[in-house]
């Protein structure tokens, strides 16, 4: 059935027959029972995807399992980072504010994977157009915002490596960077929702996720996708490369000039170099996260670029779903690279766990001993002062 469609020219004239074939091949009726899917939604699907047969249940379920793992790992990692950054005063500094916002952005992206998981288990776009627009919008906002924050972190690493004693990342600069990242990301993501001629969020691949319509043949949509490609991938990558190339040059020059300092400024030089070594360790961690971002988002950027350049024949449903899967790995692993690898953050986690352990030990020690001969009335009139017990517990924390 779908082999015939591949040989024919897919146009608006035979769209009705294609939709009928789609309704026969896909479990459309089962999607309707959730109350969000309407048959008119089929016409929003790009014609390119309608020429492919539906994937097997095994493929849908396998992707759902992958995404469930991402949700669990990403929620734990990003949630822990946010909790510790808010709870521990020693982590209340501008640099960690960027990391906390990165965790928040990644956590939002992870949470919306639940839409994809539900669609995978129902074998299609059960959330309909509303779910598609929500998924596309929040994925666009959070994905682009995370990239912008990574670029801001790389610039911070560069400036502090260049002049570790003078450069200070103040709170005003951090707030300005965060506000810019969120507004910049929202600007791109909201445009498809406004119906202003730059396309809208549409299903892609196995129709269980949504994204920008990078397969559209409309010139305005293609121009918008290209601008988005430059703004969300080329520009952040350029900033990141600029920062880390210069960091490499600074560290190389500092090693070369290490023996050319007189005794009068040796103390200042040692202090400067010690600070630089500490920051270099954090820079290495950041560079690993940047590399993770690059390998995660580049395949999807290539797919979008193939679509707007008229090479859609290279893009199959599977070829679009795998890059989309790669995009989610960065959101899950970023907190482990940025936060859990930081010595101070690890120290705070261990201290928090020790305090919790002591809290439980104190409860056990102060718990009133009740013999079997004592009844409930004796327990209630125990000499143990419950109010005093609570005071001791909270004093430990």
TrEMBL record:
It comes from the Eukaryota. It is found in: Membrane. The keyword Transmembrane helix applies. The keyword Membrane applies. One of its GO terms (biological process) is phototransduction. Residues 77-338 form the G-protein coupled receptors family 1 profile domain. Keywords: Chromophore, G-protein coupled receptor, Glycoprotein, Membrane, Photoreceptor protein, Receptor, Retinal protein, Sensory transduction, Transducer, Transmembrane, Transmembrane helix, Vision. It is a multi-pass membrane protein. Signal peptide: none annotated. SUPFAM superfamilies: Family A G protein-coupled receptor-like (SSF81321). The chain crosses the membrane at residues 61-86, 98-123, 135-155, 176-198, 223-245, 282-308. Gene3D superfamilies: Rhodopsin 7-helix transmembrane proteins (1.20.1070.10). Its main location: membrane. GO terms for cellular component: membrane. One of its GO terms (molecular function) is photoreceptor activity. It holds the Pfam family 7tm_1. Belongs to the G-protein coupled receptor 1 family. This is Opsin, ultraviolet-sensitive-like.
